[in-house]
Amino acid sequence: MTVAETIPLENDVExxxxxxxxxxxxxxxxxxxxxxxxxxxxxxxxxxxxDYLLKxxxxxxPLLTRGTKITAFGSCxxxxxxxHLSAQGYDLAxxxxxxxxxxxxxxxxxxxxxILGQFEWALENKTPEVPLWHGFxxxxxxxxxEIRKRTRDVFLATEFFIxxxxxxxxxxxxxxxxxxxxxxxxxxxxxxxHKFRVLSVRETKQSIAAIYRLLLRHVANAKVLFTVSxxxxxxxxxxxxxxxxxxxxxxxIRAALDEFLRRREDDLNKRLFYFPSMELVQFGFxxxxxxxxxxxxxxxxxxxxxxxxxxxxxxxxxxxxxxTMYQMYREKNLRDIAAGVPAxxxxxxxxxxxxxxxxxxxxxxxxxKKKESELHRTLAKVRNxxx
Length: 387
Prior knowledge:
alpha/beta
């Protein structure tokens, strides 16, 4: 049978006839690779994660041990994976250097230009001409030389980078071209020079490529994993609905990243990696969100972390365990949606296990956040004592 003879007729697919392996057609040739989108019943597959989500994006074998020096920053996924791995005893830059900017603002550098700025500043001493870096409460961070050197040392010692890209909407200084970490603080806003725009696919790809070139130049033996945050925009500065603006914001990043990865096929899954956290959250669950419609439910986060472990952590979770968790929480998600429908004894037992695992995941994240807060308070006291 030729490849062309295995191609599905469009109306056959729409009719939902047969499993992926049984779908047949004969009208079109589509090359050597042909991967179907999963049907509803195929989401229950015991190998769903490998077959329909991670295919083409996996290293030959897990890479990370508890001795691997890991640096993760960018948007929300970086903070979540940092807390998860830190709780399991992995060597995170945030734990070794909690006071540098990429640790204090690990989930606050949400656009690619800001992330590139940290690499350029630390590794090549490229300092912005004007104040651009502000925290969550609009506090200025500045360009402290000691922090720069410590950040450089962290980068040079890193063996595995995790870079999470969050959004494409940016505020920038028109006179210098510099990009703000977040929006412009109200007290500093100057309409004559502070402008808003959406980064293009080309600009985003160029920044991703620049990050990779810097790492090849300065940290030649390091590996880097890119991922896209599933967290949508809270609001948009565009004169359109936030839902449509968010779709564009994520599409720009995902398209740019994919174009970049296709240009580096020789490095892909060897020293350059992609982890589909956004796709797992958005397409793996029917309703992955908390009430704010922005942050994933704890069960969804636990599934993402367990899947990451199976793919990248030596001696971590297995794919059998990751798929079991995924199916358990996916079923619970569906049951929650269909609230009021009585569960069978077997389903009720699985839900009980799921709830217990969920409580454990919530407790771990709460404890890690508590440790972070205590550490930052201690550091603040030390800094104040020497002023």
